[in-house]
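Table S2 (continued). Query chain:
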Amino acid sequence: MTTAPPPTTVPALALGAVAGKGRPGGSRIACPLPDGGLLDVGSLATAQRGPYPDLLTAPDLTRLLDAGAPAWREVVEWLRGWREDHERAAAYRLPDEGLVPVLPFAVADYVDFYACEQHARNAGLIFRPDAEDPLTPNWRRIPLGYHGRSGTVRVTGTPVARPSGQRGPDDFGPCAKLDFEAELGFVLGGPVPGPVGIDDAADHVLGVVLLNDWSARDIQFFESRPLGPHLGKSFATSISAWVTPLDELSAARVPLPAHDPAPLPYLTPGEPALGLDLDLAVRVNGELVASPPARDLYWSPEQMVAHLTSGGAGLRAGDLLGSGTVSGPERSGFGSMLELSWNGRDPVALAGGATRTWLEDGDEVVMTATAPARDGGRIALGEVRGRIRGA
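Corresponding output:
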């Protein structure tokens, strides 16, 4: 009996922006090709009378996000045809070398949620081991989150400086418990006053990036009583260079885990709420340390949008939502060093006999993800990487 070969994984249809390394001139919008090359989207739209050339010749995706869902959906469908016609697309291919990614859009507001039950449960077990329920009473009732700092969102490849802060009473210095958090980021557009109804929320989500919400745990732990994270999170957040449209991930939409209790009406869509079946991988210095499954997220991106705006806050082009750390039920799926090392108790093995409980200067963290493709294969989302630099 023969076994079927594994499905081919190709770069997802996505949108981002690149610039010439060390060259004068601005950035331009690009799209990854199936063979790993890059398509010059603006030049293609101008020469071939594609949709919205004025938006696609902009330096990044901000104006496209401002135009809203009808515009970006038309652009995505148009690009899908060009990606499949390799010979015609060749004339608009960017050079294979000398390009660097830039932040794909101007980040307006950044909100980080706490949408994975396993991560919330692990954190509860670590910090409240004697609690009857490791989850707080509100966790299953609302998508919990906090407002982050949009000005420190950085594109993949940007070095991350170890932050300093108060680690305890009368103790100021470089963070000694530096951590990563493997997350999904949802990129929003179509500016609108709030609230946004749950059944309209998908019209404001262009797509998904991978997101690393770097965390200074010792600083975070000391400052987070009683309020949420501040300096422990605000120093850096890394995102991938490519935004994969939500429509491109249609084959990855799966039912959410069962909700108990049932969400209130403003969080209950007309059709069953759907999550995303993405397989994440986290490597430290090239060593696979975790494979978190995004399908386990408890809240959907649409529910996050509905909750965020339920108090009257509107949406702006370039708003960014973090899912919160993605973690599975086994240690191999934990999406942070906090969980993998159980707050420093259990060292994580790396190649060559090295171990880590927290990240050290010079360590590089790389996050990747794949998803089911519309044609039955698999697609790869843009990676997010960052190397730790000393304080």
